[in-house]
Amino acid sequence: MKMYDIGIVGGGAAGMTAAVYGQRAGKRTIIFEGTTFGGQIASSLHVENYPGIASISGAEFSFALLKQAKDQGAETKQAQVIDIKEIDGVMVIQTADEKISCKTVIIASGVTPRKLGIPKERELIGAGVSYCATCDGAFFRGLDVAVNGGGNTALEDAEFLSNYCNRVYLIHRRDAFRGEESLVEVLRGKENVEFVLNSTIKEIVGETEVTGLVLVNKETEAESTIDVSGVFVAIGQVPDNERFGGIVSLDSYGFVLSAEDCMTSHPQIFAAGDCRTKEVRQLTTAAADGAVAALAACKYLAFR
Ligand code: NAP
Questions:
Q1: Best of 173, 253, 255 to mutate for ligand 1, by most ligand atoms within 8 A of CB?
Q2: Which parts of 96-250 are beta strand (E)?
């Protein structure tokens, strides 16, 4: 049976950087990605905070990193990992179709968009409910839409959508944004962007597609309805690590418990990027983790 030195779960910036480092250290690596190579960054319009690169699109960055990993000899597999088991000292990575043996594993599974958890949200995904403005915004050209959230993602989404849409409601549960003031200033200058503060979405209206939102003002508790064709939910990210909870320790939020050395509670498993416990979740720190985790895996392989 084929045996890899390093099996990497997740083809985002952390996972692909780990593959580059693993291959360059002479290790046989394979990356598993269930959706899009590049992860979150693949849908960013502009990346302007990666050292040495003034500006690049997320898609271009992802493609270049994937090419770099493949050129170094990394193998890739388009498949969702559903389980990791240890059998007689070998790590067995399981997808829906097969089991692949590895000496070490790097979990770089990233995060997924947090859901609102309100009526109609799940049913209307793809029919007006979206978690990615840059992916879906063009479908709403000339229409009225809402963005929910107060972080940089919501602010950037609102700015992006204001270029396509007739009206953009930016709904945030507090009266101050968490995201950067410079972005808030840009939005204040846009005639077709309306801030709806101290408000939450109680309900999404629509049978087969989104037609409106029921909002609640948190101060007055008054309910109101706005007519929109789409709602872009940008209320942060959550880990998706339950499937790994049997083999590595997770914190109470579901992040893989790991320090800056990227070690986990299992000696053959390392964690890199947004999926692990850490302070700063950025492209640069994901890439840095990929390097640290790969070198830690190499060290394990050398001294086991
Ligand atoms: P975030 O910064 O965690 O912001 C999430 C926002 O959603 C917060 O405003 C939060 O409200 C709100 N929220 C959370 N749960 C909610 C709920 N159940 N209902 C309603 N609102 C809810 O997430 P993010 O904007 O996705 O950004 C994640 C990280 O990526 C941040 O570090 C961000 O700076 C970074 N980022 C950077 C860039 C860039 O540099 N260009 C672009 C995008 C993102 P509260 O404020 O009340 O908590």
A1: 173
A2: 99-107, 111-113, 129-130, 144-148, 167-171, 193-196, 199-205, 212-217, 223-227, 230-233, 237-239
